[in-house]
Amino acid sequence: MSFADFSSIDNLLKLLQDHQHLAYVVLFFGAFFETVIPFSLVVFGEVFFLTGALLAGMGVLNIVGVIAVLYIGGILGDNASYWMGRHYGEGLFERLQHWPLVGRLVHRENYDKGIEFFRRRGALAVFIARLSGPLSWITPAMAGIFRLDYVTFLRFNTPAVIIGISEFVIIGYFFGRHLDTILGWMHNYAPAFAVVVAGLIALILIVRRYFNWRAEIDRTRAEVVEFVSRHFGLSLIIIGLVIIGVFYIINAN
Prior knowledge:
- The protein is mainly alpha-helical.
- It has eleven helices and no strands.
- The radius of gyration is 21 Å and the shape is globular.
């Protein structure tokens, strides 16, 4: 197929239909490397979650296959991060504590504090982190570094991965199923839509700036605990929405 054939969306969709196995492989590795350091710094899993679900909603991919590869990839990726942190974390602390500037933060006392924190609140931290954006990139590795019990990690991380990915799968699948209607609505109400989008972007930037400001002021363990506790109610709401979305996908098929 020549490069010119990609000028048509129909041709691109047909290409994906003819090579579904490749699409599933890409989705799997996207979900896998989302939380594997250092790949997590450049791989944004949300892109793969939304794209896979969108294509499933459009009928290009099978929704069950998309969900399966995303869940498996996410769970295996988090487990890989955990074991990397568990195997190399303590040795990394031992080496970094002798560095001139880094050693002020990375030293044995803070390592012991991290172990104590994950011993007391690690299960909740692992669960909430998967629903809290950037925290999901590093928390599995941190759980391994600070020696959270593996069975506990597995029990709380696995359902959190499923719920966290499901948020994006439901949104993407809904848009894929109703893409023509949504595009028609956007064409008729483009100005209002632009205002809403601009408002949402502004809100996101304000919220991000607020959390960055808070993080710069105080990075103590108490703030981490407060952050986790404060978002517990939000996590319950997200879980409820995910359950509703699952029923929607089941009924739609």
